[in-house]
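Quarterly update from the structural biology core.
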Amino acid sequence: MHTKFTFYLWATGLFMLSFWGQAQAQDPRFSQFYAAPHQLNPAMNGVFEGSFRLTANYRELYASILGSDAFRTMAAGAEFRNKVGRSSDFYSLSFSALRDVVGISDFNRFHAYIGGSYLKQLSSNRYRSSDQYLIAGAQIGAGQRSFDWGRLWFSNQFNTAQAIIDYSRDNGEGFSRRETNLFMDFNAGVLWYAILDDNASVYAGGAMYHLNRPNISFVESRVEILDTKWVGHAGGELPFSQQLSLLPAVAVMGQNKGMSITGGANVRYTNRDWKEIAIRAGAWAHVSNRLEKGTHLDAIAVTTMLEMERWVLGLSYDLTSSVLATANNARGAFEVSFIYVQPSKLRFRVNCPRF
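Predicted structure, tokenized:
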């Protein structure tokens, strides 16, 4: 019995440490990346039809294995958009924050940003206020990492005679610092989109995160660089009829040696009433690279979204398709997104694509 207990403890510890290492190396991601504008591209700031927008996202990963110690990611943002003089250009200001809590160590990542963007009109015609826009955006803010030493144990604290963990023993690690210094962080991106027709659009963009490559080390005398992350994304809306359309999209992200691709589509149906109600449903595949070589299908996310005039509520669930499916019975991540847009009081409005 002691042998089984010891094996269980070591297996759990190795599992947690392996994911902790990945968490330090790579930023968290959302399956509903199209509903998390501040985490996808700073140039998404201001790309909406209204005067201000509120967004919120929540993701819970591996609760089927880790229970109350599941990985949790929370993000929120607020944007305010204004017209530039008498032109058809706009500028937008934003505030956003992200908090990520990882596993039993309570490893915590926090980022807060202020952002800005400029929406430059490229073309227009007499039938609509705008056809094409090019947007440049940037974010500047601060971040910090922390974790709870009291929730971790090390080999020096394992009592082999009784097969128990003795937290009163010295862990032998030589330091007890729980957080990093506050560090500055800088992100930037660009986005282009075109409105082709009613319910028809196309867009493409790219962004770079952590351009200043801040030091995130827990040890004062060491330097541990937060690697720059690059993002490329594209999508659009393809109409089948006045009520039915397809919204395909893809996002590719890379950081250090890690890379992931999420792609798929949502089908959108609307009643086309003056109080427009629409529903969406779709499927998305997430592919990531293996650290040794090659790539694999990590998860398949099924989504559903409800649009009610000013707000959009999205729900999704990730079905694990990697080797981890054996351990968690394919139960991966639950995710919810919320978007609220306040309509503009101005007569002039800008047409934006649906994401």
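Helices lie at 2-25, 37-40, 63-66, 325-328.
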